[in-house]
Amino acid sequence: MGIKFLRILFCVATFLITFMTEAKIIETVTIENIIPLIDDDTWLLVDLDNTTFEGKQALGHTEWFYDKAHAKMRNGMTLEEATRECYPEWIEVQKICPVKPVEEAFIPALVLMKQRGIVIMGLTHRQPSLVDSTLRQVASLGLNFLDSAPVKTTFAVPSETPTMYIQGILFTGEFNKKGEIFVRFLSIINQQPKKIVFIDDKRSHVEEVEMALMGLGIEYIGVHYTAIEHVEKVYSPEIAEFQHKFLNKILSNDGALLLMQHGLE
Predict the structure, then answer these.
(1) pTM, entire model
(2) What is the pLDDT of residue 122?
(3) Domains of the chain
Protein backbone atom coordinates (compact mmCIF):
# COMPACT_ATOMS: atom_id res chain seq x y z
CA MET A 1 0.00 0.00 0.00
CA GLY A 2 1.69 3.21 -1.20
CA ILE A 3 2.32 6.34 0.87
CA LYS A 4 0.24 8.43 -1.55
CA PHE A 5 -2.75 6.11 -1.12
CA LEU A 6 -2.39 6.23 2.67
CA ARG A 7 -2.36 10.03 2.58
CA ILE A 8 -5.54 10.06 0.49
CA LEU A 9 -7.17 7.57 2.85
CA PHE A 10 -6.17 9.70 5.83
CA CYS A 11 -7.63 12.86 4.24
CA VAL A 12 -10.91 11.11 3.44
CA ALA A 13 -11.16 9.69 6.95
CA THR A 14 -10.41 13.10 8.48
CA PHE A 15 -13.12 14.72 6.34
CA LEU A 16 -15.69 12.08 7.29
CA ILE A 17 -14.89 12.37 10.99
CA THR A 18 -15.11 16.17 10.80
CA PHE A 19 -18.39 16.03 8.89
CA MET A 20 -19.93 13.53 11.31
CA THR A 21 -19.04 15.73 14.27
CA GLU A 22 -20.42 18.80 12.53
CA ALA A 23 -23.75 17.48 11.26
CA LYS A 24 -26.48 15.04 12.10
CA ILE A 25 -30.19 14.60 11.42
CA ILE A 26 -32.73 13.37 13.93
CA GLU A 27 -36.47 12.71 13.73
CA THR A 28 -38.93 13.60 16.46
CA VAL A 29 -42.63 14.20 16.99
CA THR A 30 -42.29 16.76 19.79
CA ILE A 31 -40.47 20.01 20.56
CA GLU A 32 -39.58 18.60 23.98
CA ASN A 33 -36.92 16.40 22.36
CA ILE A 34 -35.41 19.39 20.58
CA ILE A 35 -34.92 21.74 23.53
CA PRO A 36 -31.94 19.80 24.99
CA LEU A 37 -30.10 20.18 21.66
CA ILE A 38 -30.02 23.97 21.97
CA ASP A 39 -27.25 25.71 23.88
CA ASP A 40 -26.28 29.37 24.16
CA ASP A 41 -24.24 29.24 20.92
CA THR A 42 -27.13 27.85 18.87
CA TRP A 43 -29.14 29.57 16.16
CA LEU A 44 -32.57 27.96 15.95
CA LEU A 45 -34.17 28.03 12.50
CA VAL A 46 -37.82 27.03 12.26
CA ASP A 47 -39.99 26.29 9.26
CA LEU A 48 -43.51 27.75 9.34
CA ASP A 49 -46.14 25.71 7.44
CA ASN A 50 -46.86 22.33 9.05
CA THR A 51 -44.08 22.96 11.59
CA THR A 52 -44.76 26.11 13.60
CA PHE A 53 -48.40 26.30 12.50
CA GLU A 54 -51.05 24.87 10.19
CA GLY A 55 -54.30 26.26 8.80
CA LYS A 56 -57.24 26.12 11.21
CA GLN A 57 -59.56 24.96 8.45
CA ALA A 58 -59.40 22.93 5.26
CA LEU A 59 -59.45 25.88 2.86
CA GLY A 60 -56.04 27.51 3.04
CA HIS A 61 -54.34 24.54 4.67
CA THR A 62 -51.02 23.58 3.08
CA GLU A 63 -52.52 20.24 2.02
CA TRP A 64 -55.19 22.14 0.09
CA PHE A 65 -52.48 23.90 -1.90
CA TYR A 66 -50.64 20.63 -2.55
CA ASP A 67 -53.88 18.98 -3.69
CA LYS A 68 -54.59 21.74 -6.21
CA ALA A 69 -51.03 21.69 -7.53
CA HIS A 70 -50.95 17.89 -7.86
CA ALA A 71 -54.26 17.94 -9.75
CA LYS A 72 -52.75 20.29 -12.32
CA MET A 73 -49.61 18.13 -12.54
CA ARG A 74 -51.77 15.10 -13.31
CA ASN A 75 -53.10 17.11 -16.25
CA GLY A 76 -49.60 17.58 -17.62
CA MET A 77 -48.18 20.64 -15.85
CA THR A 78 -44.71 20.63 -14.34
CA LEU A 79 -44.35 21.28 -10.61
CA GLU A 80 -43.18 24.83 -11.28
CA GLU A 81 -46.04 25.51 -13.72
CA ALA A 82 -48.62 24.11 -11.29
CA THR A 83 -47.21 26.13 -8.40
CA ARG A 84 -47.30 29.35 -10.39
CA GLU A 85 -50.85 28.60 -11.51
CA CYS A 86 -52.09 27.96 -7.96
CA TYR A 87 -50.20 30.68 -6.14
CA PRO A 88 -52.48 33.69 -6.84
CA GLU A 89 -55.42 31.91 -5.20
CA TRP A 90 -53.15 30.73 -2.36
CA ILE A 91 -52.19 34.36 -1.72
CA GLU A 92 -55.82 35.50 -1.61
CA VAL A 93 -56.88 32.72 0.76
CA GLN A 94 -53.94 33.31 3.11
CA LYS A 95 -55.10 36.90 3.58
CA ILE A 96 -58.03 35.60 5.63
CA CYS A 97 -56.79 32.18 6.71
CA PRO A 98 -56.32 31.75 10.49
CA VAL A 99 -53.68 29.36 11.78
CA LYS A 100 -53.02 27.29 14.89
CA PRO A 101 -49.92 25.61 16.34
CA VAL A 102 -49.24 22.10 15.08
CA GLU A 103 -48.11 21.18 18.61
CA GLU A 104 -49.47 23.11 21.59
CA ALA A 105 -46.09 23.12 23.33
CA PHE A 106 -44.22 24.52 20.32
CA ILE A 107 -44.87 28.26 20.73
CA PRO A 108 -44.34 28.28 24.53
CA ALA A 109 -41.03 26.46 23.96
CA LEU A 110 -39.90 29.13 21.48
CA VAL A 111 -40.88 31.87 23.92
CA LEU A 112 -38.85 30.26 26.70
CA MET A 113 -35.82 29.93 24.43
CA LYS A 114 -36.17 33.57 23.39
CA GLN A 115 -36.06 34.50 27.08
CA ARG A 116 -32.76 32.60 27.29
CA GLY A 117 -31.39 34.85 24.56
CA ILE A 118 -31.29 32.16 21.87
CA VAL A 119 -31.18 33.44 18.28
CA ILE A 120 -34.38 32.24 16.60
CA MET A 121 -35.55 32.99 13.06
CA GLY A 122 -38.08 31.65 10.58
CA LEU A 123 -36.98 29.88 7.39
CA THR A 124 -39.85 29.31 4.99
CA HIS A 125 -40.43 28.41 1.34
CA ARG A 126 -43.23 30.97 1.19
CA GLN A 127 -42.81 33.67 -1.42
CA PRO A 128 -42.36 37.37 -0.53
CA SER A 129 -45.89 38.00 -1.83
CA LEU A 130 -47.10 36.33 1.38
CA VAL A 131 -45.13 38.54 3.78
CA ASP A 132 -48.12 40.51 5.12
CA SER A 133 -50.33 37.45 5.59
CA THR A 134 -47.50 35.50 7.21
CA LEU A 135 -46.62 38.24 9.69
CA ARG A 136 -50.29 38.48 10.65
CA GLN A 137 -50.53 34.72 11.14
CA VAL A 138 -47.33 34.57 13.22
CA ALA A 139 -48.52 37.48 15.39
CA SER A 140 -51.88 35.76 15.94
CA LEU A 141 -49.98 33.01 17.77
CA GLY A 142 -48.34 35.50 20.12
CA LEU A 143 -45.03 35.01 18.35
CA ASN A 144 -42.53 37.56 17.10
CA PHE A 145 -39.27 36.55 15.43
CA LEU A 146 -37.89 40.08 15.21
CA ASP A 147 -36.72 40.37 18.81
CA SER A 148 -34.79 37.08 18.57
CA ALA A 149 -33.47 37.57 15.03
CA PRO A 150 -29.76 37.74 14.16
CA VAL A 151 -30.36 41.07 12.39
CA LYS A 152 -33.31 43.49 12.40
CA THR A 153 -32.95 44.87 8.87
CA THR A 154 -35.05 44.06 5.81
CA PHE A 155 -33.45 42.99 2.54
CA ALA A 156 -33.64 40.58 -0.39
CA VAL A 157 -31.13 37.77 -0.86
CA PRO A 158 -29.90 37.56 -4.49
CA SER A 159 -31.40 34.52 -6.24
CA GLU A 160 -33.12 33.40 -9.43
CA THR A 161 -36.57 34.05 -7.97
CA PRO A 162 -37.61 36.66 -5.37
CA THR A 163 -36.68 36.30 -1.70
CA MET A 164 -37.14 38.51 1.34
CA TYR A 165 -35.77 38.70 4.87
CA ILE A 166 -38.09 40.71 7.08
CA GLN A 167 -38.88 40.75 10.81
CA GLY A 168 -36.71 37.73 11.49
CA ILE A 169 -38.21 35.50 8.77
CA LEU A 170 -36.33 34.48 5.63
CA PHE A 171 -38.77 33.92 2.75
CA THR A 172 -36.80 31.79 0.28
CA GLY A 173 -39.58 31.42 -2.30
CA GLU A 174 -40.95 28.15 -3.66
CA PHE A 175 -38.24 27.48 -6.24
CA ASN A 176 -35.04 28.25 -4.33
CA LYS A 177 -33.30 25.84 -1.97
CA LYS A 178 -33.53 26.84 1.67
CA GLY A 179 -29.92 25.92 2.36
CA GLU A 180 -28.47 27.93 -0.52
CA ILE A 181 -30.48 31.03 0.34
CA PHE A 182 -29.59 30.76 4.03
CA VAL A 183 -25.85 30.51 3.27
CA ARG A 184 -26.12 33.63 1.09
CA PHE A 185 -28.02 35.29 3.94
CA LEU A 186 -25.12 34.54 6.31
CA SER A 187 -22.70 36.07 3.82
CA ILE A 188 -24.78 39.25 3.55
CA ILE A 189 -25.01 39.77 7.31
CA ASN A 190 -21.36 38.70 7.75
CA GLN A 191 -22.13 36.34 10.63
CA GLN A 192 -21.39 32.67 11.20
CA PRO A 193 -23.00 30.84 14.12
CA LYS A 194 -21.13 28.08 15.91
CA LYS A 195 -24.16 25.81 15.82
CA ILE A 196 -27.45 25.61 13.93
CA VAL A 197 -30.55 23.58 14.73
CA PHE A 198 -33.12 23.60 11.92
CA ILE A 199 -36.65 22.25 12.39
CA ASP A 200 -38.74 21.31 9.33
CA ASP A 201 -41.56 18.87 8.62
CA LYS A 202 -39.85 17.78 5.38
CA ARG A 203 -36.70 15.70 5.68
CA SER A 204 -35.56 16.82 2.21
CA HIS A 205 -35.39 20.44 3.42
CA VAL A 206 -33.42 19.42 6.50
CA GLU A 207 -30.97 17.57 4.24
CA GLU A 208 -30.71 20.54 1.84
CA VAL A 209 -29.58 22.81 4.66
CA GLU A 210 -27.14 20.14 5.85
CA MET A 211 -25.52 19.99 2.40
CA ALA A 212 -25.37 23.78 2.07
CA LEU A 213 -23.56 24.15 5.41
CA MET A 214 -21.09 21.36 4.70
CA GLY A 215 -17.51 22.56 5.06
CA LEU A 216 -18.39 25.86 6.74
CA GLY A 217 -17.31 24.66 10.18
CA ILE A 218 -20.81 25.06 11.64
CA GLU A 219 -22.15 22.32 13.87
CA TYR A 220 -25.53 21.34 12.42
CA ILE A 221 -28.45 19.36 13.77
CA GLY A 222 -31.33 18.95 11.37
CA VAL A 223 -34.64 18.01 12.92
CA HIS A 224 -37.21 16.20 10.81
CA TYR A 225 -40.23 17.24 12.86
CA THR A 226 -43.16 14.88 12.27
CA ALA A 227 -45.81 16.27 14.62
CA ILE A 228 -48.08 17.12 11.66
CA GLU A 229 -48.36 13.39 10.90
CA HIS A 230 -49.76 12.64 14.35
CA VAL A 231 -52.35 15.37 14.90
CA GLU A 232 -56.01 15.29 13.90
CA LYS A 233 -56.31 16.00 10.19
CA VAL A 234 -57.66 19.44 9.33
CA TYR A 235 -57.76 19.10 5.55
CA SER A 236 -60.73 17.63 3.71
CA PRO A 237 -61.16 18.25 -0.04
CA GLU A 238 -64.95 18.29 0.28
CA ILE A 239 -64.95 20.79 3.14
CA ALA A 240 -62.38 22.98 1.39
CA GLU A 241 -64.51 23.08 -1.76
CA PHE A 242 -67.57 24.06 0.27
CA GLN A 243 -65.65 26.71 2.23
CA HIS A 244 -64.47 28.21 -1.05
CA LYS A 245 -68.05 29.26 -1.78
CA PHE A 246 -67.84 31.49 1.29
CA LEU A 247 -64.34 32.78 0.56
CA ASN A 248 -65.00 36.34 1.68
CA LYS A 249 -66.29 35.01 5.01
CA ILE A 250 -64.25 31.89 5.59
CA LEU A 251 -66.01 29.10 7.47
CA SER A 252 -64.55 26.88 10.16
CA ASN A 253 -64.60 23.14 9.42
CA ASP A 254 -67.40 22.66 11.96
CA GLY A 255 -69.43 25.50 10.44
CA ALA A 256 -68.99 24.16 6.93
CA LEU A 257 -69.99 20.64 7.99
CA LEU A 258 -73.13 21.97 9.67
CA LEU A 259 -74.23 23.82 6.53
CA MET A 260 -73.37 20.85 4.30
CA GLN A 261 -75.38 18.46 6.48
CA HIS A 262 -78.43 20.71 6.18
CA GLY A 263 -77.99 21.30 2.46
CA LEU A 264 -77.47 25.02 2.95
CA GLU A 265 -75.21 25.83 0.04
Answers:
(1) 0.85
(2) 99
(3) 24-55+102-234 (3.40.50.1000), 57-97+236-264 (no CATH)
